[in-house]
Design a protein that fits this description.
This is EAL domain-containing protein. The structure is a single chain. With 279 residues, the chain is of the alpha/beta class. It is 45% helix and 20% strand. The protein has 11 helices and 10 strands. Strands 1-2-4-5-6-7-8-9 form an 8-stranded mixed β-barrel. Helix 11 links the parallel strand 8 and strand 9. Helix 1 packs across helix 2, helix 3 packs parallel to helix 5 and helix 5 packs parallel to helix 7. The longest helix has 26 residues. The protein starts with 5 loop residues before the first helix and ends in a 13-residue tail after the last strand. The structure holds ligand C2E and magnesium ion (3 copies). The site of ligand C2E has 24 residues, from strand 2, helix 2, helix 3 and strand 6.
Length: 279
């Protein structure tokens, strides 16, 4: 890490800009063939019931390994796929793969748990989204109550009829809905009830602040208390240690997820006997 002075700033900045543009163009181009070339896969991270210690759900997280670009993190390529519209195609693949995986786990006789799938606002706004979900559930044979869709707070700013109607129809289908990264946007909890969300996931930045108590404790316990008053479940993301877990248990947080339990892993590497590490 070197500090840059004067005219160097400009040079560095423009080189960085060029690199970013080239990288973005390459991502956009290669992403189009990523599914066909089998470069995408899903990893799964457990969500643990903090009262019973049992496995409540697995969150599906997309991974992309490209021969020239290498491993590209979802935080890099998902926003680009949203801009290009490719997310609709990718998101469908994710949903189908995740639902099929859970059905396989169910058929193998594992105790019941849900699968949580991240859904981009662009996908949810697409007029065929609900029909796609319905079709995938039918094709994979997964019962709707085992599927939970995670959307970010930005969806609530989209106060459109399409979004409201889609959320309503998903609810009627029996699919559950959660708000991801809760607390980072501008949503008030009253919206959650209005849109009938089942759960909120407290953003991991607040969980990270618990230890040093940079307001993390105050924010976390307020979210839990308010959500519970509204009859909404709470999941804490990014639990990395016993201190954080202990605090969340005291505050009666319902479920937790994080490296403390397990990182996301490919389905084939999940050993249900010894993993996830539960309490
Ligand atoms: P997210 O949905 O909030 O997922 C949680 C992220 O936190 C994941 O990063 C996960 O690997 C990471 N994480 C889990 N536990 C811990 C922990 O204890 N400490 C820390 N520091 N991190 C932890 P990942 O897999 O890189 O995904 C990043 C984001 O990309 C996701 O955030 C989600 O917004 C998006 N994403 C991932 N897969 C998909 C997908 O299939 N579709 C869409 N639309 N978005 C996706
Ligand atoms: Mg998520
Ligand atoms: Mg999150
Ligand atoms: Mg996130």
């Amino acid at each position: 890490f070197t500090k840059k002075h004067g005219s160097n700033d400009y040079t560095v900045y423009s080189e960085e800009l060029d690199f970013k543009t080239i990288y973005k163009v390459a991502i956009e181009k290669d992403l189009k063939s990523a599914i066909a070339k089998k470069e995408l896969c899903l990893h799964y991270q457990p969500i643990v019931n903090l009262k019973t210690g049992t496995l409540a759900a697995m969150e599906a997280l997309i991974r992309w390994d490209n021969p020239t670009l290498g491993f590209v993190p979802p935080d890099n390529f998902i926003p680009i796929s949203e801009e290009s519209g490719e997310i609709v195609h990718i998101g469908k693949w994710v949903l189908e793969t995740a639902c099929r995986q859970l059905k396989d786990w169910q058929d193998a006789g594992h105790p019941p748990f849900k699968v949580c799938v991240n859904i981009s606002t662009i996908q949810l706004k697409h007029p065929h989204f609900v029909a796609t979900v319905q079709h995938i559930l039918k094709a994979t044979g997964l019962a709707p109550r085992w599927l939970e869709l995670e959307v970010t707070e930005s969806i609530l700013m989209e106060n459109t009829e399409v979004v409201k109607e889609s959320l309503q129809r998903l609810k009627e289908l029996g699919v559950s809905m959660s708000i991801d990264d809760f607390g980072t946007g501008y949503t008030s909890l009253s919206y959650l009830r209005q849109f009938a969300f089942d759960r909120v996931k407290i953003d991991r930045s607040f969980i990270g602040d618990i230890e040093e108590d940079l307001n993390g404790k105050a924010i976390t316990s307020s979210i839990i208390a308010l959500a519970h008053k509204l009859n909404i479940g709470v999941i804490a993301e990014g639990i990395e240690n016993q201190d954080q877990l202990g605090f969340l248990e005291e505050e009666l947080c319902d479920e937790g997820q994080g490296y403390y339990f397990s990182p996301p892993k490919p389905a084939a590497q999940i050993d249900f006997q010894t993993w996830p590490k539960i309490k």
